[in-house]
């Protein structure tokens, strides 16, 4: 006698409940992972935007000439107002300090807060004379070796020279009697372009190389890493004592050591010398004042730039140094 079997079709209630539970668990996991991915993408985008804004602020601060200590500082079209020991700027979602209706973004309405903090770095302050008669060994860094850039008249033409002078307390530097000076090739009659390379020898010493735009090696010396680099232009003048007109002098610095290079430009204020930091950390001291009482080398400051959102989450922090008069 045959046995009849009846097959069930579909799922039992228990199977349906178990399946729905599993699907729910998987869905929650997928959704959570998706939301985390979106959040991380948004966080990364916010930090990238903040980094671009921070870089813009750093470049503006470095290019601008300003004083600190007042209620605000103006850098280009950006105004930072003092808030205790920090200068701040309040921004909307587009990193602007004004809304479309030209109302200022305030602390209460800000999406982002931009802060700039100044702290004095360790640096010497010294005075020089307006005429920059610093080759008398009595002025700034008088006990330092110096790079002298000079100008001399040769028949009907002027020629530019460079020399590395090792400090000698007993005598002044005289370009006319310096048989080691080298002629500098110019891009044209009024444009000088030099490159300075600092490369480490060991923990205490480095090489200093200066070349002109043709690649000619003008200076190759060894020096202590801790020593200042002094570039003196006191002999860079016409035969009648006046400054050359329309001169453009560019010095590109490549610091390939791990230590900061402190470079002092000893020059008259009106002489156009542009020192460009191409690699590594370089601190520039430049005497620019028009009278002796104000003619100081300024103060070197550590500058911290930070950008946070309105929830105090840090999006960007950057550091650099600037010499401020």
UniProtKB/TrEMBL annotation:
Keyword Transmembrane: yes
Key words of the record: Membrane, Transmembrane, Transmembrane helix
PROSITE patterns documented for this protein: PROKAR_NTER_METHYL
Keyword Transport on entry: no
Entries under Pfam families matching the protein: N_methyl
Membrane-crossing residue ranges in chain numbering: 12-37
Record InterPro entries: N_methyl_site, Pilin-like
Protein name as annotated: Prepilin-type N-terminal cleavage/methylation domain-containing protein
Organism of origin: Clostridium beijerinckii (Clostridium MP)
């Amino acid at each position: 006698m045959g046995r009849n079997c009846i097959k069930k079709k579909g799922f039992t209630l228990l199977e349906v409940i178990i399946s729905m539970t599993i699907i729910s668990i998987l869905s929650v996991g997928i959704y959570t992972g998706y939301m985390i991915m979106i959040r991380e993408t948004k966080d990364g985008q916010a930090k990238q935007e903040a980094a671009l804004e921070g870089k813009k602020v750093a470049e503006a601060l470095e290019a601008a000439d300003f004083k600190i200590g007042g209620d605000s500082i103006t850098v280009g079209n950006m105004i930072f107002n003092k808030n205790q020991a920090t200068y701040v700027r309040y921004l909307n979602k587009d990193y602007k300090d004004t809304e479309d209706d030209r109302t200022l973004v305030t602390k209460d309405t800000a999406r982002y807060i931009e802060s700039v903090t100044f702290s004095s770095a360790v640096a010497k302050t010294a005075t020089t004379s307006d005429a920059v008669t610093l080759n008398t060994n009595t002025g700034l860094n008088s006990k330092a070796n110096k790079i002298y850039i000079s100008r001399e008249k040769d028949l009907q033409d002027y020629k530019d020279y460079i020399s590395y002078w090792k400090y000698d307390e007993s005598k002044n530097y005289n370009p006319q009697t310096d048989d080691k000076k080298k002629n500098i090739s110019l891009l044209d009659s009024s444009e000088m372009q030099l490159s300075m390379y600092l490369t480490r020898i060991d923990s205490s010493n480095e090489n200093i190389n200066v070349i002109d735009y043709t690649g000619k090696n003008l200076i190759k010396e060894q020096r202590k890493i801790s020593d200042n680099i002094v570039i003196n232009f006191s002999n860079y003048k016409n035969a009648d004592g006046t400054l050359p007109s329309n001169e453009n002098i560019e010095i590109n610095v490549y610091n390939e050591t791990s230590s900061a290079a402190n470079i002092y430009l000893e020059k008259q204020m009106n002489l156009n010398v542009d020192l460009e930091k191409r690699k590594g950390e370089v601190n520039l001291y430049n005497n620019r004042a028009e009278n002796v009482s104000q003619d100081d080398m300024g103060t070197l400051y550590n500058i911290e730039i930070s950008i946070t959102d309105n929830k105090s989450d840090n999006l960007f922090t950057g550091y650099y140094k600037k010499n401020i008069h």
